[in-house]
Amino acid sequence: MHKSLKKRLLPRKGPRVRSMAFGLISQVTDFLFLSGVRPLTIPAIRSLGITTVINCTMDLPDLPIGAEVEYVRVRVDDSPIFDLSVYFDPVADRIQDVYLRGGKVLVHCMAGASRSPALVIAYLMKYHRMRLRDAFRYVKQRRPVVHPNYGFFKQLIDYENQLFGSTSVEMVPVPSLGPGYGLVPDIYLEECKGLLWLHSLKAMGH
């Protein structure tokens, strides 16, 4: 991680973070925020000092907040086959530009779980020199609902390889869930084990 940017990151928080829900704006660094649409209000944006909002939805309208806040539209479909990677560099560069100008950025999609977190993770990899595994864990600690779809995660793995020449996360099969389940990021395996546990309970009639 670049030393000049390390101080911009926030320390890991405690139990309050684990209780966060979709309805909150999550602070990723001292100038970068992440959310879904539910908590987006003009007073909330103004109270945080947001100067740029990056809207990662297909058609959700921007808030009529006026010229004081710059809106950037990035039309992303939350589908595993959507090519999100074409936006990794442009969005990361825009976030960094706002930071260098002393501003604050809010990146949002509908739920703040897949599209916008994937773009924030790409930013952390490019400008904070964080490996994908570390960047994902860092963002998830600050917004526990973060869960980029498997297609976006595969694109993040490819982007990490492009940036660093190696990868810290792999796409792996989950044989116990059957061949139709496909590949998942290895960082999601614990989650898949939880699904297996639920399936086993249902099979036993619980």
- Alpha-carbon distance between the termini? 47 Å
Number of helices: 8
Low-confidence runs of at least 5 consecutive residues:
13-20, 196-206
CATH class of the largest domain: Alpha Beta
**What global shape is seen?**
globular
Sheet with most strands: strand arrangement: 1-2-5-3-4
Name the average pLDDT.
85
The oligomeric status of these chains comes to: single chain
Give the tally of β-strands: 7
- How many distinct domains? 2
CATH architecture assignment name of the largest domain? Alpha-Beta Complex
Helical content (DSSP H or I, runs of 4+): 25-40%
* SS class: alpha/beta
Strand content: 5-15%
Instruction: Give the name of the CATH superfamily of the largest domain.
Output: Protein tyrosine phosphatase superfamily
Radius of gyration over C-alpha positions, nearest whole angstrom: 18 Å
Largest sheet: 5 strands, mixed
- Report the order of strands and helices: HHEEHEEHEHHHEEH
Under CATH, the topology of the largest domain can be stated as: Protein-Tyrosine Phosphatase, Chain A
GO cellular component, one term: cytoplasm
InterPro entries: Dual-sp_phosphatase_cat-dom (IPR000340), Dual_spec_Phospatases (IPR052103), Prot-tyrosine_phosphatase-like (IPR029021), Tyr_Pase_AS (IPR016130), Tyr_Pase_dom (IPR000387), TYR_PHOSPHATASE_DUAL_dom (IPR020422)
Protein name: Dual specificity phosphatase, catalytic domain
Keywords: Hydrolase, Protein phosphatase
